[in-house]
Amino acid sequence: MIYLFDDKESRQQSYGWTNNKFELWSDVIVRIKDYSDYLSLEEQDIFSERNIIIYHESFSTCIPYEERRSYQAFHNALIDGSELPGINIAIFSGSIASRAINKNVAHVPVTDMYANLECFLGHYREQEIDFKYLLWGEEYKIEQTLLDLIEDISNEIYEGEIQSDWSNVFFASAQKYGIDAPSNDCIQEKLWLSKVSDSDLDNYIREWFDESEYEALYIPLCFGKVLSDYNGLRLAIHIRCTKSANQNKPIYIYSPVPTSFLVRSKYFDILKTRGVKLIHMHPQKIIDSLGSLQPLIENEIKFEMEQIHLPVPQNYEDSHSVANEWAIYRWAVATNSEDSAIDKIANTIKSNLYFKHLTTIYPPSEIKSIKEDRLKFKDQLSGISPTLTGQKDINILYVDDEADKGWYEIMANIIHDVNNISGFDYLGEDLKALSQQEIIDQVVERVEEGSVNIVLLDFRLHKKDHDSKDIEDITSVQILKKIKEFNPGIQVVIFSATNKVWNLLALQKYGADGFIIKEGPENSKDPSFTIQTIDNFINVMSICISNRYKKSLHQIASELNYNLEKGAKSHKIDKDFQKSVKLFYRMAYSSLPQSIDDPCFDHSFMNYFRIIEATANETIDVDNPEAKEKNGTMRYSFKFRGTDEYLKDYNEDEFSETAKKLSMTNKRLNFKQKFYNLFARLGVYSSATFNMVEKRNALTHPNSKVNYKVEPINLEDVLLAASISFQCIRNMIENKEKEE
Fold first, then answer.
1. Alpha carbon 698 to chain centroid, angstroms
2. What single-letter DSSP state applies at residue 643?
3. pTM, whole model, 2 decimals?
4. Given a cut of 70, is residue 157 above it in pLDDT?
5. Which residues face 2 on adjacent strands?
C-alpha cells in the first residue's frame, strides 16, 4: 500500500489531484491529510515491508504543538530512511530542487511528484514498483539519452589551432560526465555533483566572480545528479541576478541537445534574453562561439530579467506566503529592523533564485530608509484629560501565525522602540498547532479578558483560510465579527497579502478599522509602494490610537443600558425612558466620525445631550408647575418628580446650598434652570456643565443679539457630554435604588 502524507489539500488541488481523482486510486493509495488521519492508522501497518511512503517534508508542522515531541521519532525515521530498508520512501517538497534516488529513499520536487504520481500509481497497479516513474514519469529514458550524448561528445578532440585568446575566459565543467575546456589558457572550475541547491549555486558565483572579471562565461547545460534538470539554465539566471563584476558578461551554455528539448523547463526564459546563448558542446562549436555575444550594459540587466517568469517556489504555501516574506524583507529595509528571523529571510532573499530575480527587477536600493520621526504615531487624545477618554494606556495585541518570521520584530521596533508603547503583545507561532475554532476562542478570550484596545490581525491565520471560498469562513473575519460584537470600540486593523476589493469591502462591512496590504512582488513595480504602505500603516495606527476612547464609551454605555433595563423590569425605571436612552446612546456612538480630524462631531454631541435632557425630564416634573398669585402676577414653581422638593434658583457663577426656591412668571421651565437643578440634584454641578449647556445653546439657537458665539464641536466636547450623561444616568439609578 502507498501512504501519502500531505497536509495541504489546496496544494494537491492546484496540481489537479482533487478528491474525485484520489477516489479513482483509493485501492492503492491512502491519504493522510492531518494529525487525526495519522492517529487513525497503526504505525506498524504504515511500516509494513514493501509499503511505499510519500512524505511531504514539512508535514510535521501540522502536528499540534504538544504532540510534536512524540511525533518527531516517526518524522525522523522517514526523513533518514536508513532504518527502514524494506520500505520505499519518497520525500517531496518545494525546497527540493533536484531529483535523486539513494537506495530506498528518493527526493523529488513537489511539482514533479504530483505531475508524475498518476504514472507511478499506474505502474504500481501492474506490480512494477520503481521510483523512476515518480521522479521522471514515462520520460525517464531521457536521462540515459543525455548521458549517451555527453559521453559521445566527451570523446571528441579538437585538433585545429585556436586563434582566439582564452586567457580571460571562465569555463565551468560538470564533476561527472563533463568535458574539458577547449583551451588550457582559460580559468577552469568544477560544478560538484551534489551541490545544486540555490544556496550552492549562489556560493559558486560569489566564490568565482566576486574578485575576478572575465570576458565570457561558459557553463554546462547538464550537471548535478539529474542531467534533465538542466541546471545550467538555472545557474545562468543566478549569474544575471547576482551582483558581481561578471553579472553582465556573455553567458554561453554548452549543451548536448537542441533548444527543443528545453522548452518545458521552468528556466527556459533565460534563453530568450540578450547576452545568453545555447551552443553545442562539441569543442569546435565552443571555440567558434567566443566573441559572438556582447556584454550587457548595466541598466539592461533589469530589463532583460523582466522577460523571465519564474514560478512561485513550491516550498511556500502559495503566493500569499511569498508576499509575506517579500513584505517582511522590504519593511525591514525601510524601518531598519533587525533580528535573527529577519536575517534568515534576508539570506533567503539573497540566495533563493525566485527572490534574487525579484530583487534584480525591484532593487532594495530603491527603498529609502524611513527616518524615525516619520514612524511616530499621532495620539490626538494626548491633550485631553484621561478622565474623559476613559482609557489612557495604549494596549495593542498583534495576532499573526507568521509573526515570528520577522513581523513581530518590525512591529516591536515601530510600536515599542520608536513610539515607546509598552502595552504591546502578540500571539504567533503557537497558533499553527491550533484548530480554527481554538484560534478564534483564544484571540477573543484574550481581547475580552484584557485591556486590549487595538488588535492587529493577520487575514489568514489557519491553513483552511487558503481554501475558503466564502470570506465569512476566514478565521480573522470570524474573530473580527466577535470582537465587534463584544465591543465595536476596540480598533481592529487587518493585515493581508490580498488586495482584492471585495475582501476590503467585506472587512469594512464587518467593522474593520483599517486594512494594510502586505506588499507582494507585483506591488513593487512602484518603487515607492513600500514607503507608501508603511506611511499608511502609521496613519491607520494613529487613527486607531486616537480612537481608543470609543472602547470605553461603548463599554460604559452598555453597562448603563444593562442597569436601566434591569431597573425597567423591576419598575424602578420608566420603560419608555430606558428605551429612549438606549436609542440615543446607539445614535451618539454610531455618529462618531472615523477620524478625530473630521469636524462632524455635532450629531454625537447632540445625542449625548439628549440623554441628559431625557434624564432631566425624567427627574423634574416639567409639565405640572405649581401656580400661585403674588402681587397680581401668577408665579410658577416646579418640583422633582415624586417629591415635595422645589427647584432652586441657581446661576452659573456659583452653586449655593442656600439658593432660593425658583419662582417664574412663565409656565415653561427655563432651559438653563432645568439643567442647573438636574446637575445639582445628581451631583454633577460644575463650570464644565455650564460650558456644555452654553455650547449646546449656541449650536441649537445661534443668536447674535445675545452674543451666542457658534464654535465647532470637537471630541473633547463630545467626551464631556458623554461623561456628564454617564454620571447623570448612574446617579439617577443609585437614587432610584435608595428610594426603595
1. 48
2. S
3. 0.79
4. no
5. 29, 52
Q: What is the mean pLDDT of residues 304-316?
A: 83
Geometric angle at alpha carbon 703, from 699 and 706, rounded to 5°: 115
Instruction: Tell which residue, 284, 304, 285, 308, has the closest CA to residue 294.
Output: 304
Q: Angle at which helices 602-619 and 671-682 pack, to 10 degrees?
A: 70
Whole-angstrom distance, CA of residue 729 vs CA of residue 581: 9
Report the 3 state secondary structure along 463-492. HHHHCCCCHHHCHHHHHHHHHHHHCCCCEE
Q: Mean pLDDT throughout 245-257?
A: 96
Distance CA 619, CA 14 (A): 69
Residues 6+ apart with CB under 8 A from 13: none
Compute the half-sphere exposure of residue 61: CA atoms within 13 Å on the CB side of its CA.
15
Looking at every residue in the chain, the average pLDDT score rounds to 89
Confidence band of 364 (pLDDT split at 50, 70, 90): confident
Q: How far apart are alpha carbons 196 and 74 in whole angstroms?
A: 28
Alpha carbons 140 and 641: distance in angstroms, whole number = 96
| C-alpha grid cell, residue 279 | 551552443
Angle in degrees, CA 260, 266, 270, rounded to 5: 75
Does the pLDDT value for residue 348 go beyond 80?
yes
Q: How far is residue 280's CA from residue 152's CA, in Å, rounded to a whole number? A: 13
Local structure of 235: helix, strand or coil = helix
Residue 498 has pLDDT above 80, yes or no: no
Tally Cβ neighbours within 10 Å of residue 73. Answer: 9
Looking at residue 314, what is its pLDDT?
64
pLDDT of residue 371: 93
Tell me if 584 sits within 8 A of 611, measured CB to CB: yes
End-to-end Cα separation, the chain, in angstroms:
79
Instruction: Answer whether residue 704 shows pLDDT above 70.
Output: no
Compute the distance between CA of residue 280 and CA of residue 263 in angstroms, rounded to an integer.
16
Q: Position of cell 531598519? A: 336
Bridge partners, 255 (sequence order): 280
Alpha-carbon distance of 58 to 388, in angstroms, equals 52
Please tell me the distance from the alpha carbon of residue 573 to that of residue 729, in angstroms, as a whole number: 11
The mean pLDDT value for 77-104 works out to: 88
Q: Where does residue 512 fall: left (phi above 0), alpha (psi -120 to 50 degrees), or beta otherwise?
A: beta
* Cell output for 304: 532583460
Residue with cell 462618531: 592
| 3-class DSSP assignment, residue 324 | helix
186 close to 164: Cβ distance less than 8 angstroms:
no
> Which grid coordinates are listed for 200?
550552492
**For the segment 268-294, what is each residue's pLDDT rounded down to a tens digit?**
999 999 999 999 999 999 999 999 999
Contacts (Cβ under 8 Å, ≥6 apart) of 269 = 307, 308, 309, 310
- DSSP H helix total and E strand total for the chain: 27, 18
Q: If you compute the radius of gyration of the chain from its CA atoms, what whole number of angstroms results?
A: 37
Query: What would the grid cell of residue 370 be?
Result: 524611513
Measured CA to CA in angstroms, residue 735 lies from 278, 482, 622, 627, 673 at distances of 93, 35, 19, 28, 21
The CB density around residue 451, as the number of other CB atoms within 10 Å, is: 12
CA 9 to chain centre: 21
DSSP state of 175: S
Question: Distance between CA atoms of 456 and 415, rounded to whole angstroms?
Answer: 12
Q: How many residues does the chain have?
A: 740
Q: Identify whether the C-beta of residue 28 lies closer than 8 Å to the C-beta of residue 2.
A: yes
pLDDT > 80? residue 567? yes
